[in-house]
Amino acid sequence: MTFVVTESCIQCKYTDCVSVCPVDCFMEGPNFLVIDPSGCIDCGVCVPECPVEAIFADDDLPIDQLQFLEVNAEIAASGKWPILATQKPPLPDHEKYKPIKSKVGLLDRNGA
């Protein structure tokens, strides 16, 4: 099992989850975070820290978020995004994007 960052993170990029991760498995892109499944130890301490409830165990992913299991694994394996080990401020327009449900089209897969 691994944990997965889902669509709610896009354009918000809260990093509260990063500050509690004991193994530094979060990777940072321009407008999204991913969890490297090869580094995740399945502890789950990140889940309650996310203010937009964007992190799920892979077994608990909502059906409309299943694609993010592959998105996290693919981006992590690409090596394009650096590991993020310290908390940072959210993106400037995070409050505007926080309530928006459908944001997958805004995902920027380029390097951070």
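Second entry:
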Amino acid sequence: MTYVVTESCIRCKYTDCVDVCPVDCFREGPNFLVIDPEECIDCTLCVAECPVEAIFAEDDVPAGQEQFIELNAELSKQWKPIVERKDALPDAEDWASRKDKLGELKR
């Protein structure tokens, strides 16, 4: 089992999770982070660090967000690793509680 970044991260991209990851499994896109399922060691450290509660165990991904399992796997092959915390996106607070953000995802 691996961990998955879901919709809540889109247009926020808080990187608190990156700081605690012992294996550098996060990948960075323009406005979203993903977890490389090949690198994730299921340590759970990132889950508690996410301020928008966007990270779930693969088996616990909320109903309606299952497509993020495949999306993390796909985009992790395309995006570069992020190994240090960065500032969140400038309007992250405005987007943090919004729903239905998949259309906002930039690849």
